[in-house]
Amino acid sequence: MALKITQVRGTAGTKQKHKDSLRTLGLKRRHQTVVRPDTPDVRGLIQAVRHMVEVEETAGE
After folding, report:
1. Do the beta carbons of residue 36 and residue 58 sit within 8 Å?
2. Is 54 helix (H, G, I), strand (E, B) or coil?
3. Residue ranges of region Disordered (predicted)?
4. Which residue in 7, 14, 53, 58 could disulfide with 18, CB within 3.0 to 4.6 Å?
5. Neighbouring residues of 16: CB distance < 8 A, sequence distance ≥ 6
C-alpha cells in the first residue's frame, strides 16, 4: 500500500515545523504530488500538515 500526497496550500505564513514536514515528504510547491509508502513515520508527517495536503491510498509502491 502506498499514499499519494498532493500539496494543496502554499507555505507562506506557516510555521517552520510545517515547512520542514512538507520538505521531508518531498513536497516543494503547490499542486506537486508524490507517492510514499504507508508507514507510521509518513502518517505522522501527514498528520502534522493535514490542512495543507490531500492524501489518497493507492496500490503498490
Report:
1. no
2. strand
3. 1-22
4. 14
5. none
**Number of folded domains in the chain?**
1
- For residue 48, the domain's CATH number is 3.30.1390.20
Q: Crossing angle of helices 40-48/16-25, nearest 10°?
A: 140
CA distances from 48 to 22, 23, 60 (A): 9, 12, 24
The domain containing residue 42 runs over which residues?
Answer: 2-58
Mean pLDDT per 10-residue interval, the chain, length 61 residues: 96 96 96 96 96 92 63
CA distance 2 to 16: 26
Please give the model's pTM, rounded to 2 decimal places.
0.90
